[in-house]
Amino acid sequence: MSDESVLTQSAGGITVKIAALLGWFALILQLYLILTSRWQGGKSLLGGVDIFFSYFTVLTNILVAVVLTCAATSGDSALRRFFLKPTVQGGVAAAIILVGLAYNLLLRNIWNPQGLQWVADELLHDVMPVLFVVYWWFCVPKGALQWRDVWPWLIYPLVYFIYALVRGHFVGSYPYPFIEVDTLGYPRVFINAVMVLLGLVVVSLVLIALDRWKGKR
Question: Where, by residue number, does the polypeptide cross the bilayer (predicted)?
């Protein structure tokens, strides 16, 4: 292996490590902000943890951070092998792209975060999606994805949607305005969910097409 190749691999490894650290930093910052707000308002910190894990953005960024951490570290374990499967990484890529698109198209204009909350928002919704797509393109082996991989990738958002509705029913709060049953009603919420899932299908098909194209090259 040439010195240039070694340097390139070394730089790539450092970049992935930085991306993983940035992902965990963004998540910790968001949790800190939620808990601080709850503390200042005299509310339950446990409720703040519940709110933190109620967001699809947070759960998906956790998956991103886990994948990047597995890629940035060595060792052999069943968990690491699972998260480094091209099909798993492809599914995570599709989900984090959905996070970025949904936020920028549907949510960005409905509130105006300031200060550290703005930093957390930008990291979770813009920076990490871009970093992970770049990682997926350059670091994940290509040519392994099949068109049928779309279907298992839909399981995660479907499970999340059910969880969000059940949680919202009991606590009276929903993480996103387009699934607020109390305001919109179940028919509208289900239509919104189908539209989001269709968006994920489109994103997934594009990723698979790119994977197969690059794999053939």
Answer: 12-35, 55-75, 87-106, 118-138, 150-170, 190-210
The identity of residue 104, as a single letter, is N
Name the CA radius of gyration of the chain, rounded.
Answer: 19
Place of tokens 């599914």: 91
Report the distance separating Cα 54 and Cα 159, nearest Å: 12
C-alpha 74/C-alpha 36 separation (Å) is 35
Task: Supply the pTM of this predicted model.
Answer: 0.94
* Cα(179)–Cα(175) distance, integer angstroms: 8
Report the number of distinct structural domains present in the chain: 1
List Cβ neighbours of 186 (8 Å cut-off, separation of 6 or more). none
Tell the residue number behind the tokens 């997926």, with chain if given.
136
Look up the domain containing 54 and give its range.
Answer: 3-216
Q: Which of 144, 151, 129 is nearest to 210 (CA)?
A: 144
List the structure tokens of 148: 């049928």
Angle of CA points 49, 55, 57, to nearest 5°: 125
- Cα-to-chain-centroid distance, residue 34: 19
